[in-house]
Amino acid sequence: MFVRKYMSPAVFVSLLGMASAHAQSSVNLYGALDIAVGSFQYSGLPNSADNKHTTKVDSNPMVTSYVGFKGTEDLGDGLKAGFMLETFLRPDTGEAGRSGVDPYWGRAANVWLQSGLGKLTVGRQGNLLFGQVVSFNPFGGAFGLSPAVRLTFGKWGNDKGDSGWSNAVTYNTPNLSGFTGTVQAQAGETTDSSERSSYGLGLGYASGPFAISGAWQTVGAAEAPKTAFTAGQRQNFGLLSASYDAGFAKFFGQYGQFKNNGFSTTSRIDTSLYQLGASVPVTASSKVLASFGQSKEKPTEGGTTPVTLHNILTLAYDHWLSKRTDVYVAFMMDNEKQTNFKKGYSYVAGVRHAF
Hints:
Blueprint: H1 2-6, H2 9-23, E1 25-40, E2 54-59, E3 66-76, E4 79-90, E5 95-96, E6 108-115, E7 118-126, H3 128-135, H4 147-150, E8 164-172, E9 179-186, E10 198-207, E11 210-219, E12 234-245, E13 250-261, E14 269-283, E15 286-299, E16 308-320, E17 325-336, E18 344-354
Antiparallel strand pairs: 1-2, 1-3, 1-18, 3-4, 4-5, 4-6, 6-7, 7-8, 8-9, 9-10, 10-11, 11-12, 12-13, 13-14, 14-15, 15-16, 16-17, 17-18
């Protein structure tokens, strides 16, 4: 009766079709906020800016805060399309970005297509090597606390690109009996040879409690916040990672190498690094995290940087109040063994909320 009185059957069927189409699409708002109070000190010359203890409210020791939008649409016949827009932020000050030089959508700005043949993503996105660093250490993407992140993509790491690539295209294979593969490329997009294309390859295997992954990238271009490349500069980075969940603890291990070509005398260095870590459940809602990482810099021909060891040890207790909110306390020892350098010790207490 309602249909006959207020609309024609054709209009009603049309609206049902529209409702069905809308039901096959979704858009979500999501993100995470991480903020802490602590006393921060890093390795450096005595009384230098880095080596001074600083007590402050700080953003992002456990995860870099961000806000994102993502959407998917079912196109039928097993094909899906989607998009992702994510911006970093610093909740201690309310500022956008990891720093003042980040693009607004610096975490992600891409579209993708996915089918039974795999997934193709185009636009700004996290790079392949950073994804592996994050996946195989107990602190994940903690730029403030993770030895693995700090010795690769962090402030004291030797990566000359960035954890995110603009102008990138990535293909991920479907899961084939536990095996997955990834191919990634970033276009340099300059008319000269100063900014050249970058490429990455990855292969992983996971079965039950065990996972292993290897990845390699060659970087020919950099963007803010990293220093832009000049003609002839290139950096290669390879990383092998593994993890094993023994039930009473999950163990992690990583080994990698950086090779620099075409840089100035102070950057004519090769770097090897490793990280060992564990995540140990204490209760159903809490765990202890521990990770030790070391990098070793060695000068290549013509280089002026001396052989340098950099050790980082981080211990933390992480307690989940709910599925979305956790509180944590952490201690980090930072020790770069250069002449007259002094160790740094940081003590942090924070809260992280995902939405």
